[in-house]
Amino acid sequence: MPLSWKALKDKILTVLLFLPALVLVGYFVYFSIGWNIVVSLSDWKGLVPSYHIVGFSQYLKLASDPVFLTSLKNNLILMALFVPGSLVLGLILAIFLDQKVRFEGGFRTIYLLPFTLSFVITGYLWRWMYNPTIGVINTILDKTGLGFLKSGWITDPNIALYCVVLALIWQFAGYTMLIFLAGIRSIPESHIMAAQVDGASGLYLYRRIIIPQIKFSFFTAFVILMVFALKAFDFIYILTSGGPGYATEILPLTMYKESFAMTHFAYGSAIASLLFFLVMMIVVPYLLRTYWRSEK
Amino acid sequence: MIRPRLSRFFLYLILIFFVILFILPLWSALVTALKTEQDLIYTTPIEPPKTPTLEPLKTTLSVMGRPLLNSLTFTLGATILSCLFGSIAGYVLTKIRFPGSGIVFALIILGIFIPYQAVLVPLVLTMVRLGLYNTIWGLILTHTAYGIPICTLLFRSFYEDIPDSLVRAAQIDGAGTWTIYRRVILPLSWLPFAVAAVFQFTSIWNDLLIGLVLSRGIEAMPASVALANLKGGFVALWNLQMAGTLWYALPALIVYFVLGKYLIKGYMAGAIKG
Amino acid sequence: MGGKLKVFSVLVSLFAVTAMIASCAGPTPSPTPTVSSPTPTVSSPTPPPPEVNALTVYHWWTSGGEKAAIDALIKVYATKYPDAAIMQTPVTGGAGFTMMGIIKTLVLAGDAPDAFQMHAGYEGKPYFDAGLLDPIDNLWKEEGLEAVIPEVVRHMCQFDGHYYSVPVNIHRVNVVWYNKSLLDKNGIDPTTLTTWDAFFAACDKLKAGGVQYPIQMGEAWTAAHAFEQIMASMGIDFYQDLINGKITSADDPKLSQALEIFKKYLGYVNPDHAALTWDDATKRIITGDGAFNIMGDWANGEFYVAKMTYGEDYGTFAVPGTQGMYGLCIDVFQHPKGVKHPTNSLGWLKVVASKEGQDAFNPIKGSIAARTDADISKYGPYQQSAIADFKAAKYMFPSVVHGSGAPESFKVKLSDIISGFTTDLDVSKAAQALTSYTKEISGEYTIQWSLK
Questions:
Q1: CATH number of the A59-294 domain
Q2: What ipTM goes with this model?
Q3: 8-state DSSP, C35
Q4: Which of A77, B107, C36, C296 is within CB 3.0–4.6 Å of C173 for a Cys-Cys bond?
């Protein structure tokens, strides 16, 4: 078909519309990544910038650095627990709220409240909640006769990380709930009623009919939770500063300490680059699977 | 709507348990914000104040007034822009097949996961060179750029489900790309817009690091930075910090309330899923 | 389309409105500097007029008494240089953790402020190494500072034998704060607590008297702070070797001894320390939940707010084993190279170092002046005793935990290692970690201190 003027104009318009997004992302994201990679390979020392590439020595150092390895392990555990945990809690809350509950709007708003508070504040609040001596959790456990469940929480290096995960789930479950609720509500009535005519009810209805229909919500929530898992830097810094010892140390924290507190920019950039690749390795396969299937 | 029923009593019990769990810290923030410094020392964080005072709220409002305005401005601006660009990008990547669109998509969404600590130095370098350091537009530009990847993802996933037949029907009627976008795609996009808007608003509103590094002085200072500044280097006045938190959470709460309603509003007419 | 369009247009108009208000509410250009009152308000900066008669200062004194102190100092500057427009940028975050990140980023971007707060000693090293600081030997000479500032303090303001910064204040770090009524009740005389044995015996007495956790401590860095004082109590020779990077053997007897003492110390400490901020711990001395707390003398402000009287309700003594030693935590300002307003920057330094400036700042801050000719009458009771100790001090030592004595990397690592130690109490592991890291960063120990 000959390229008419109208078709050409159309193509140009498309490009113009798409361009800003491409340019912005290309620069702000990839320039930064590139910068990090170059610096991690350079001989940058202290505050004297240098982009002269000398090799992979920083990465070799990382491989044998116990702090980095602990940090990496903690990061993976955090993601592995926080994401499913929030998804499950959010889903449960969404299903509960879908039950034609009175004051649904009120419940919804309250569950969303933690999400509206900044990490700085919830960090302090949870620090106090988890206090083994005067904190809310241990006090309530005592008063309800469950004193044997008391623990050191974030002062105990064995469970500190899990305490952090719990607090994070608390903060994000409300948002996940919102996404799921919207997804559930957007399933056409006809589908539900058809299934009910066929005799489906209660949990079966949810399991077989409704949940599979909200794939979009699942996917959205998953990605968003992953992002927040990575951005939990502020929260963890306030809650535990990576302690006790390195029990709750995560990669963004290690990276910040190395680059900005110890002025080891090359090392910090290596950590940042690795962090980015780590995330890529987790998310890309998931994306490929989802989109390869839909391409068919 | 007919929904499967679960035991009502059990249901309400669990819901209320969660309410207590979720609201406890906020209650603590509220009572702490109303305490005098004496109260801070001698009462626990849950107890209401012995001599309640509005001083902390008043003081912090005067400190945070301008930063709150700043935050509102650049958060709304960046949210709108990133949603818009993300929506267009999602549309182009799904409805307009061009060779390599898959790769472009992948490259865009990898940007979702970039950790902010890693970009601080190149970011400041860029902003200083552009003359946008310590300006609201600098913050808008930055947050828009870093928000586009996730918005693109959200919109693309959603647009995938819009049947191509709709687009083709419009094309047969002679509509161009932009017209199709305006008349067909956009009206159907309220769900992803709401999701993306809430996410972006939160992300940007709560961001601390970028705001810290790109602002100096109060002209462009975000509320998150002003809030963090209420905590001193060696001194921590809890009543002020909690009062500041309440002010800080207020606009966000209002936005969620409004947008949340649209998220939950209900049903798709079936044109999509039917 | 209706609903969505409505929301969208609401958002856009909201944005437009706030943008308009934000640009209208901008600062009006006037050359007078704004100074805020002692209540925490953020000072609104006036944009510098076309000539460079302005000054930007970064610090982390963002609230309460600290803020009042820096405001007082700025006021002194304003009276001496009434035409300059001053822009303060307070950046919060424990002891500058966040601010350091910001400053380094700005410095790399070529946009460093005219002056930024730093701790004396190693904290300024990266900037010196990068050639970003200008020497100010002339200023020291003109202001006659060498005569009124003690030797160790002077050394902390130097790199390679030249002066690069001026001290604002002196905080003491090796202080034990105690609750007087608890000690009286249990028949403990604080003046006898000059050795660790005596100190621990007193703790036993307190425990017997019903005080479950006689020593109160806070989170990781406060543990490192306490441990640092214990190391100082091992003798000035040991401490000097430590900060000069000479303690590299994991079997070092004094290092192990210090760790053992700390282990015993921890036996009397509240188990929830990791969840407390430093002031939470100090507050427990105020309320009588604990008796002892090792903390720098910024803690005095807590007692002041609680309306306690020095000598009656609470008191202090030097950390056991550190009598006659004054542990230094010093804030300084420096002269960055290529600053935008060099005359004002130097003027600021002069004010900071002056008797007038220091006597305006320190009484409010709770520290003491870095000058030996301070006007004692302006200071409160604790500070007066601190000034007396300062003048009579046999040895002074720069704190590691507060950025001065050892390289930054060591400071960060020390905090992490000690935080781990408080849970596993593994002396050999900690000794191993500390000494091997010292060896690893041996190249960073470019300042060699001589404290005797």
A1: 1.10.3720.10
A2: 0.77
A3: -
A4: C296
